[in-house]
Design a protein that fits this description.
The radius of gyration is 21 Å and the shape is globular. It contains eight helices and five strands. The protein starts with 17 loop residues before the first strand and ends with a helix. The protein has two domains: about 80 residues, Zinc/RING finger domain, C3HC4 (zinc finger) (Herpes Virus-1, 2-Layer Sandwich); about 60 residues, no CATH class. The longest helix has 12 residues. Helix content is about 35%, strand content about 10%. Bound molecules: zinc ion. Its EC number is 3.4.19.12. Belongs to the peptidase C19 family.
Length: about 190
Amino acid sequence: HHAFSGWKCERCDLTNNLWLNLTDGSILCGRRYYDGSGGNNHALDYYSETKYPLAVKLGTITPGGADVYSYEEDSMVMDPKLSEHLSHFGINMMIMSKTDKTMTELQIDANIKLGEWSVIQESGHELKLVYGPGYTGLQNLGNSCYMNSVMQVLFALPEFKERYYDTAVDTFKRQTGDPTKDFNTQMSVIP
Ligand SMILES: [Zn+2]
C-alpha cells in the first residue's frame, strides 16, 4: 500500500488535515477547530471564492472510501463515483492507505476531550459503578447519543430483545444477500 507524501496546502505550510477539491484538484487545509487546532480554513475560503462544492480529505482515502465533504450541503456526503473522481487527479484509490484521522475519529477525540465522561458520570454525585451484560452503552459519534438512547430503550423491551437478539444467530444463518443492506441483520448486530 502507498502512503503519498509531499502534499502541502497551496496557501500555507500545513502538510496534514488537507482537502483535495474535486472540481480542480486544489489542495488546501481544513478548518480551524474550536480549540485552535486543525487548519487555517484555506479549503473553506477557497469554496467561498469559487463555489467548487466537493472536497476529499487526503490521508483518509482507502480502497473502502474516503471522507468527502460538501460545502454546499455543509455536511459529509457519499461520492458514489469517488474512485473515478480521484483517478482524474492521478490517485488510485485501490492502493491508498490511511495516514490521517477521519472526521468520525476526530469527533470521538473531541467528545473525549470535552470531558463527556465526567458529565455522564454526574461528577460530584455519589454513584454506584455498574458494568457487565446489559450495562454497556454505545459509542457516541457527534449527535448520535439521541439515536443510541432510543436503541438502548428498544433493546431493553423483552419483545424487541426476543426478536433481534435472541434469534440473531438464526438471522445471520438465513441471511444470503449483502448483509449491510439487510435490516434484520443490521438490527441484530447492534447488541
Ligand atoms: Zn492552508
